[in-house]
Amino acid sequence: MLAVGTPAPVFLARTTRGDSISLRELHGRIVVLYFFRRAFTPNCTVETKGFRDNYAELAQLGSEVVGVSCDDYATQCRFAGAHDVRFPMIADEDRSISRAYDVFFPILPLSHRVTYVIDREAVIAGVFNHEFQVVKHLDEVVRFTRELAMRSKLPPSR
Length: 158
Known about the structure:
Layout lengths: L11 E3 L5 E3 L7 E6 L6 H19 L2 E7 L3 H10 L6 E3 L4 H5 L13 E5 L5 E6 L4 H20 L5
Parallel strand pairs: 3-4, 4-5
Antiparallel strand pairs: 1-2, 3-6, 6-7
Helix pairs in contact: 1-4
């Protein structure tokens, strides 16, 4: 996984909403970029519903949530629709985004459950990895994003 302080790799992808999204267009916002293993699996469904249920608060903090898995586009669209997901989701079919963010296990072609919180300057500010503790994972990401949003609104110290 990438380390805190690393510039976030730039990406451009089609979302389940049919539009495109890029990290460059999100510059100036906090980006909560979460990678999950597979659509419609129990833990990934719980995680996605958790981000969905917290999306309004995260958006009020000036952030954008983006979900990524290596599922095909049609499956990712069905998954987003089935769970009324309002934030962009990406089907990383060629695995280019997942590779750029180094989310695969070393030997297995499976991705870690990892969330990167990217600051307003496109630098990785937080990395969260909980393979099985999905609720803990979500709670930590939301708490960190709140703190980052509050810190980034403060005037610079002299």
